[in-house]
Write a structure and sequence with these properties.
- Chain A has 520 residues and is mainly alpha-helical.
- Chain A contains 23 helices and two strands.
- Chain A has helices at 3-23, 28-56, 78-101, 104-108, 111-127, 131-150, 155-186, 191-197, 204-222, 230-234, 240-265, 270-293, 298-319, 322-353, 364-367, 369-383, 389-403, 407-432, 447-468, 470-485, 488-495, 498-501, 504-515; strands at 59-62, 73-76.
- Chain B is mainly alpha-helical.
- Chain B is built from six helices and two strands; from the N terminus they run ααααββαα.
- The chains are: A mainly alpha (520), B mainly alpha (155).
Chain lengths: 520, 155
């Protein structure tokens, strides 16, 4: 398969599945099967893409056959493809999990088409090499997620959904303003072209203004301090399958966008921009973990922990050394899998005992020991117990922080790790331990929960895989960090394509289009 | 607004004209102002007008299919126009052109047809939903038995 098609498969597959599931509205069984096949297909295509860029370097292609500065470029470097693979993994796990978890009414209203359109948006955001196109993918993603978050129409969902919609529209507005300004400054929106053009812009102050606009916009999407309040207000309302998907992926698209623009584009005034990011990272960690400590709802605790974990990733970006970026990428991979998994566990607990409240959940360990094991793996990994993946991620970041001399942020990160442990043990003590007395029903595990265990177990296995094979994952993260620190390979892959894509046929076409039909 | 003889008579005459005009707008969009989006909106207003005159159930019958099916067909058509060039060794979304019988046709028009269908689908989904969620704007008549499931669930 040629690189062009391979590069676009992660977009085409979910789009095809979205159309097919929409057409098969009245056949929920087929929809479920198609969704699972599609997500697995995305995973396979993403892995094939990883092998391809491992052999041949960064891949880039122009949509519609238009060459680099004019057309929209899709680019796959290591960071993009790592994100694609991890999100496809979550997609597969959620596809299995949703079969028992998402009720017939939601399926009837289009759960599967919107899930796949959401996947199109996420994958598009990871692959695009054009700023305005990134905005478009964000919108695709947001509109699908708006529907998913209110699907089911409960009051709680609508209240959470409105906050989510409004704050994200504000974020889009900032993004669009930034895009307009950067186009005014440089005359291009192609990221590789921008990386070359921005250092030559004379109005350095304006470049920093644009950087701040992007920081606010992506900061809202990534739930960065002090822009995170929408997240815990909305993430605990939809079914567990949806909130796991959101928790794992949506904020990480914001983090990805921050990493992309603050390594490729805005590196002119690192002292200011990345210094600010470091403060935001520290405050995000602390505020998230402290807010989580007082919560008593399983999913609200997890939601606030997303925020504190985002801080670690941004810390890696803000330190802006090769090791720190490796840490950030490693952390994202670790976090997406672990966090989605914890949300899936909370959904399984809810399925068994009908509540997400830690005050009401009890005795899960005695009644369902397998679930206790499946909870402990991601929970301990999140808290950073050796030898699980979270430990390696934190270790890399701490080492990077010490090397960069940013001792205070390392101290903060370690303290936050302790508090994370506190929250996870709170869940353990409240939901799993008590109630060995007879009123806990230790009957047969329902089939629905067994299916859920399947996807929870798969993600737990992925966590263990990353923990045991931390070396290969580290090397992949290292490659992406190399590409991020040294953007010449990215720029060359995108702009150097001009000759090979713009073959004679395209040029003729270009001339034809310029005059239009009437000119002929 | 309900049971107006003038509106009903006018609607019978206007609906075909509006539909014809919407197709004209869609085709015109290739080189001049117009296109699938505006064409779809205009076609949507034709069925909305019919709904105002005769009720949404009659409008649904006149549509002969569901808005959701139009949506799916539109997305599929647009997707088709995007992937056809892939099989010809081109880039996705690349415009491919042919001149059968001296008329210039290509994949972009297919894309526009897709947009046209999607916009009709979305517009009518909203219009019909307005009626079914109790907005007293359309002439009321008994709903056909084959209405979507939400009517039962709200009960």
């Amino acid at each position: 398969m040629d690189s062009h098609t391979l590069l676009l498969l992660p977009l085409l597959i979910p789009f095809v599945v979205a159309v097919a599931t929409l057409a098969l509205r009245t056949r929920p069984g087929l929809q479920k099967a198609l969704n699972l096949i599609g997500m697995t297909g995305i995973l396979a295509a993403s892995i094939a893409l990883l092998v391809r860029i491992g052999n041949e370097g960064i891949q880039a292609t122009g949509l519609g056959g238009w060459p680099a500065p004019f057309g929209i470029m899709m680019v796959a470097d290591h960071l993009s493809v790592i994100m694609l693979i991890v999100s496809a993994l979550i997609g597969v796990a959620v596809a299995i999990y949703a079969i028992p978890n998402v009720d017939a009414q939601r399926v009837g209203f289009g759960f599967y088409p919107f899930m796949n359109l959401l996947m199109v948006g996420i994958n598009g955001a990871f692959l695009t090499g054009d700023l305005f196109n990134l905005y478009v993918w964000f919108e695709v993603m947001l509109i699908s997620s708006f529907v998913l978050i209110v699907l089911g129409n409960t009051d709680e969902q609508l209240a959470g959904g409105i906050k989510y919609v409004v704050i994200n529209l504000v974020s889009s507005l900032f993004f669009l303003a930034g895009v307009g300004m950067i186009y005014g400054l440089t005359g291009t929106l192609n990221m590789a072209e921008l990386a070359m053009a921005l250092p030559q812009v004379e109005q350095e102050g304006l470049v920093t203004v644009v950087a701040m606009l992007f920081l606010v916009s992506f900061g809202i999407k990534a739930a960065l301090f002090p822009l995170f309040f929408w997240l815990p207000a909305s993430y605990h309302t939809p079914p567990a399958a949806v909130s796991a998907f959101f928790a794992g992926l949506l904020t990480k698209v914001g983090v990805y966008a921050l990493i992309r623009v603050f390594t490729l584009l805005f590196t002119q005034d690192v002292g200011f921009t990345h210094g600010l990011l470091l403060w935001a990272a520290g405050l995000t960690m602390v505020s998230g973990v402290l807010a989580a400590a007082i919560q008593t709802d399983f999913r609200k605790i997890l939601s606030f922990h997303i925020i504190s974990q985002i801080g670690y990733m941004i810390m890696g970006l803000a330190l802006f050394t090769p090791l720190a970026l490796i840490g950030a990428v490693f952390y994202i991979v670790h976090h997406i899998i672990v966090k989605a998994n914890l949300f899936l566990v909370s959904g399984a607990a809810n399925q068994l005992q009908g509540t997400f409240s830690l005050k009401k959940l009890k005795g899960l360990y005695a009644a369902h020991p397998l679930m206790a094991v499946l909870f402990v793996i991601p929970a301990f990994s999140l808290a950073g117990f050796p030898p699980l993946s979270g430990f390696w991620a934190k270790l890399i970041l701490a080492k990077a922080g010490l090397e960069a001399g940013a001792y205070w942020i390392v101290a903060v990160a370690m303290a936050v790790g302790l508090f994370t442990m506190y929250s996870m043990s709170k869940v353990w003590v409240n939901a799993f331990l008590p109630g060995t007395d007879e009123d806990v029903d230790a009957g047969r595990t329902p089939t629905a929960v067994r299916v859920m265990y399947l996807s929870i177990g798969a993600l737990a296995a992925a966590t263990i895989f990353i923990s045991v094979f931390a070396g290969p994952v580290y090397e992949m993260a290292e490659q992406s960090a190399d590409e991020l620190m040294n953007s010449s390979a990215y720029i060359e892959a995108v702009t150097g394509h001009e000759e090979s894509v713009a073959d004679s046929a395209t040029r003729v076409d270009l001339d034809g289009r310029a005059g239009g039909v009437h000119a002929q | 607004m309900r049971n107006s003889l003038i509106l009903r008579t006018a609607a019978r005459l206007l609906v075909p004209l509006i539909l014809l005009f919407s197709v004209f707008l869609m085709l015109r969009g290739h080189n001049e102002s117009g296109g699938g989006f505006i064409g779809g909106l205009v076609a949507g207003t034709a069925f909305a007008l019919y709904a105002m005159a005769y009720g949404t159930a009659a409008s649904r019958r006149a549509l002969r299919t569901t808005p959701q099916a139009l949506l799916a067909a539109g997305l599929a058509t647009a997707l088709l126009s995007a992937v056809i060039p892939l099989f010809q060794g081109g880039a996705m979304l690349q415009g491919l052109w042919a001149k059968p019988l001296g008329v210039k046709v290509g994949t972009p028009i297919l894309f526009d047809v897709g947009v046209y269908l999607i916009v009709i689908g979305i517009t009518l989904m909203i219009v019909y939903e307005l009626d079914e969620s109790g907005v007293q704007f359309f002439p009321q008549e008994p709903h056909p038995a084959s209405l979507p499931a939400e009517a039962e669930e709200s009960a």
